[in-house]
């Protein structure tokens, strides 16, 4: 690419037109025009009229040929120094992960309005400005959602955040996932009656890696248009000095506004221990995260659960004060995912529904949604799947019909959510295990399938001699599957005792070597749900 023409001599700079120093494009236009005008003036003064007219026509043709616009104008580079105009396609200093999402970039003309979609599906709790609704249709936005690394992976309660991010992506927007390596050291007081326990650095780093991997695994669908970035806010917080933070951020914070936040008020009213200063400042830390991403990543929308409203608005207020604009940044919250009894899904309770297959198998994950009550299944189909509302409406109508086959809606819910979280391979694994482990199923069992559920059902280890030529009734009791031999015999007569999915009809049935699956395991079942995996030592 040719360099732009520059006048360097001081005396010439005084009178040379400034716009000549911009680009060769301007020089190629204005110099021929100037020469043409000068020659025409000479002919007009010293020549006759015919010669003037003929020469004028020729010069004009030559001028327009030379001055034909060059449409290949040099493009301003994306990366410029801080002294020049700031572009938000910044250099990837904090880049860690990038993945492509499954939808192509939509043009404003055909882009679906994500706010309206979320509203229709019951995924919209509130947002900071109605302008966001029209902005979602008119332009491509960058949105972010944060997750603090308080566990090794995410759980079902976090899934709605990923679902909402996915809806933004499907509507042609882009996203940033923020893992709170810095804020996780403090702990968000929202929805908590006590201060979170402090995590050591090793645990934090392990949790950060686990959560990042989980999110990338869920959203790892190749496409060349939309991308997911996972960032760690410790990357910028580690360089922030306390005095600078007070000067740049603290002076914009008003204590009365911070005290009025719902998360703070509830904690002060409900807890005898009150609220520590560390937790009190959490909203400022999350607010500054929004400011940083607004400046460095061009993020204009932060999303979060309804309990995050105070922290989100702390960020939009900071941006408004720092940039003197009411419509620079927006916040949007979605309802929390609640159980039928109104309690939150969490990680502290027994039997938490984890999103990582390392902590909960796809089979167990599938089984959870297969067991959702009828009262919740339609609501879950709307908020946890990407099925059309028309199709969900048809399923709802079928559930009310006389010929409805029980659990049909639950099966579809389990398939859709398992596919989204664990992919096609995870869904296939879950369906295979479900069919194979169904008592009475004709599906041939193998060692790998049984081992796949061994972490989700009770198991024990027995020696070869403790199993072979021993009655099934006796082993079902010794392994703890059934309480007593009388209960085992009663269950056998009712047709509810199974060995490797085959019904045991004979009370004297003994296990032989051929019953041991692949020479490694046995599967005992008492009814359809209670199972015992017996490993052969």
Question: What layout of secondary structure does this protein have?
Answer:
Blueprint: H1 10-15, H2 24-46, H3 49-66, E1 97-100, H4 114-120, E2 126-127, H5 131-138, E3 142-147, H6 156-170, E4 174-179, H7 201-218, E5 227-232, H8 234-237, H9 242-248, H10 255-259, H11 262-270, H12 277-280, H13 282-296, E6 301-305, H14 309-323, E7 330-334, H15 362-370, H16 374-384, H17 389-399, H18 408-436, H19 447-452, E8 459-462, H20 472-478, H21 485-493, E9 497-499, E10 502-503, E11 521-526, E12 530-536
Parallel strand pairs: 3-4, 3-6, 4-5, 6-7, 8-12
Antiparallel strand pairs: 1-5, 2-7, 9-10, 9-11, 11-12
Brief descriptors of the model:
537 residues; alpha/beta; 7-stranded mixed β-sheet; 5-stranded mixed β-sheet; 21 helices; 12 strands; 44% helix; disordered N terminus
What does the model show?
With 537 residues, the protein is α/β, with parallel strands linked by helices. The protein has helices spanning 10-15, 24-46, 49-66, 114-120, 131-138, 156-170, 201-218, 234-237, 242-248, 255-259, 262-270, 277-280, 282-296, 309-323, 362-370, 374-384, 389-399, 408-436, 447-452, 472-478, 485-493, and strands at 97-100, 126-127, 142-147, 174-179, 227-232, 301-305, 330-334, 459-462, 497-499, 502-503, 521-526, 530-536. A hairpin with a 2-residue loop joins strand 9 (497-499) and strand 10 (502-503). Helix 2 (24-46) runs antiparallel to helix 3 (49-66), helix 15 (362-370) packs antiparallel against helix 18 (408-436) and helix 16 crosses helix 18 (408-436). The N and C termini lie far apart (74 Å).
């Amino acid at each position: 690419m040719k360099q732009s023409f520059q006048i360097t001599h001081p005396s010439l700079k005084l009178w040379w037109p400034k716009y000549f120093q911009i680009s060769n494009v301007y020089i190629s236009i204005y110099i021929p025009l100037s020469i043409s005008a000068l020659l025409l003036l000479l002919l007009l003064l010293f020549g006759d009229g015919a010669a003037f007219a003929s020469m004028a026509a020729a010069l004009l043709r030559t001028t327009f040929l030379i001055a034909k616009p060059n449409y290949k104008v040099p493009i301003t580079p994306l990366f410029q120094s801080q002294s020049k105009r700031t572009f938000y396609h910044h250099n990837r200093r904090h880049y860690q992960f990038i993945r492509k999402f499954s939808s192509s970039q939509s043009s404003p003309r055909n882009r679906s309005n994500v706010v309206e979609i979320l509203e229709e599906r019951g995924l919209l709790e509130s947002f900071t400005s109605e302008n966001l609704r029209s902005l979602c249709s008119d332009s491509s936005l960058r949105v972010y959602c944060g997750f603090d690394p308080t566990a090794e992976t995410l759980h079902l309660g976090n899934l709605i955040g990923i679902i909402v991010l996915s809806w933004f992506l499907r509507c042609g927007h882009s996203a940033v996932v923020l893992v709170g390596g810095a804020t996780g050291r403090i702990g968000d007081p929202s929805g908590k009656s006590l201060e979170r326990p402090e995590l050591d650095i090793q645990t934090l780093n392990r949790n950060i890696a686990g959560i990042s991997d989980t999110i990338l695994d869920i959203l790892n669908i190749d496409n060349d248009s939309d991308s997911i970035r996972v960032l760690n806010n410790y990357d910028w917080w580690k360089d922030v000095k306390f005095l600078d933070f007070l000067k740049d951020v603290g002076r914009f914070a008003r204590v009365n506004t911070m005290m009025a936040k719902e998360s703070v008020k509830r904690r002060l009213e409900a807890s005898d221990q009150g609220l520590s200063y560390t937790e009190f400042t959490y909203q400022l830390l999350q607010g500054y995260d929004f400011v940083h991403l607004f400046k460095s990543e061009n993020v204009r929308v932060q999303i979060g659960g309804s309990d995050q409203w105070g922290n989100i608005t702390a960020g939009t207020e900071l941006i408004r004060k720092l940039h003197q604009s009411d419509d620079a940044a927006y916040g949007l919250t979605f309802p929390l995912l609640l159980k039928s009894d109104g309690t939150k899904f969490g990680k502290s309770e027994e039997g938490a529904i984890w999103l990582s297959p390392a902590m909960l198998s796809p089979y167990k994950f599938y089984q959870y949604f297969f067991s959702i009550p009828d009262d919740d299944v339609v609501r879950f189909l709307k908020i946890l799947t990407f099925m059309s509302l028309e199709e969900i409406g048809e399923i709802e109508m079928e559930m009310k019909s006389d010929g409805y086959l029980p659990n049909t809606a639950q099966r579809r819910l389990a398939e859709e959510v398992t596919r989204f979280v664990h992919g096609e391979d995870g869904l296939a694994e879950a369906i295979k295990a479900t069919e194979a482990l169904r008592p009475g199923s004709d599906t041939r069992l193998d060692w790998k399938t049984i081992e796949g559920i061994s972490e989700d059902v009770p198991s024990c280890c027995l020696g070869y001699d403790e199993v072979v030529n021993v009655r099934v009734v006796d082993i079902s009791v010794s392994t703890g599957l059934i309480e007593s031999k009388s209960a085992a015999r009663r269950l056998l007569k009712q047709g509810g005792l199974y060995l490797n999915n085959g019904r045991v009809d004979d009370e004297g049935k003994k296990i032989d070597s051929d019953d041991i699956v692949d020479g490694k395991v046995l599967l005992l079942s008492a009814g359809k749900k209670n199972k015992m995996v017996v490993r052969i030592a």
